[in-house]
Amino acid sequence: IFDSSCTGKACFGFFSVGSSYTHTGLAALNEKMTEDAQVAVITNSNGFSQSVFEGAKNYIEDNAGLNKQSETTISVEKADLTDGDKTKIKVAMDQRPDIVVIAGHNKDVEPAIVEIGKGTIHPKAILATNGLTALENYGEDSKYANCVMMPTQWAEGSTTDPVVGWTSADFKTAMNGSATYQQAAAGAVCVALANAMEAGSNDKAKLVEKLKTMDVDSFYGKLKWDSAGRISKPMYTQQKQGDNMAIVAPTGSVSFPITGDSCWGTGTKLKIGGPIQDSYVSAFMVWVDGHNAKSDKQYTVETHFKTYADASFEADVTAMTTPGDEQYVDALLCPYTSGAVIKCVGAVHSDYPGPIMVWGGASDTIFDSSCT
């Protein structure tokens, strides 16, 4: 529209262009990462999706901390995935991307997200066009909509312009209680015209002149245009957080990672424990609590400590190291003193595949004999 169709004409757009759709979302996710993020980009072949796709790739290439890992084009548009498409997505996910960007439409975006969710390798975040506009398309797999991020044109803020004076709430009330971003864009056209007329002393011949120099905040966002007619407001990013659709970029708080308990609840859980004397448990919990408090953690630590009792702790060790037992731990922590460690190691189930952490014993016998 603005690169070609509007050349030589006084166009004023009200949608942020497709090439910018993913920018604020990617910026917010980049801030969440503690190391460079590997990004998989998936698109359908629709022209608009391709503009989003190219814009995402360009943004990734231009910003430190983001690396394009793979790009995938699916064969369908507004339809369920083919087996071939599912295979392509699996190939992309097998590379373990941190972020997946999806440019597509309802009925192909949701199946792509579900396909990722049902796979064995999960990213830290998904940013998808149309990922939250038709939640019914997730069907019985609705949990995979949780914490998906989606570009949106309208932040539904409380800012007002100086002439019409609408807030987002005012506009929605006038629209009988709710409004789409498309309707908000139409309303913003009227706000822009009203402000241009005011600035031009109600001389309609000055509309173009005043629109070209306009710089007005409004319920819809910044009303300002570049020389080609592209609106200068940012693309916003929203995220499904429980029952809320929260704006998380360019400002806001992203729920991260998508595998977390408040999102998909599919994150890795590391269960550690053992029969530890009470006075030493707090030393382990310093790390456990600190790690679990991190917003960008890739796994959660669960603890299963049993109070050390010399007469019975060996039975606890056997239970904790028996695969399938409800007390099973991924890493066994033996108690303090070399004598207790020797008993602990001796009680470990023969099929236990996990590590035995010997932190409280220094006897050579432990390593020369017990751990053999």
From TrEMBL:
Instruction: Report keywords, A-Z.
Output: Signal
Stored Pfam families: Peripla_BP_6
Leucine-binding protein domain boundaries: 11-239
Q: Which InterPro entries match?
A: Leu-bd, Peripla_BP_I
SUPFAM superfamilies in the cross-refs: Periplasmic binding protein-like I
Signal recorded as keyword = yes
As recorded in UniProt, coiled-coil segments are none
User: What is this protein's name?
Assistant: Leucine-binding protein domain-containing protein
Species annotation: Pyrodinium bahamense
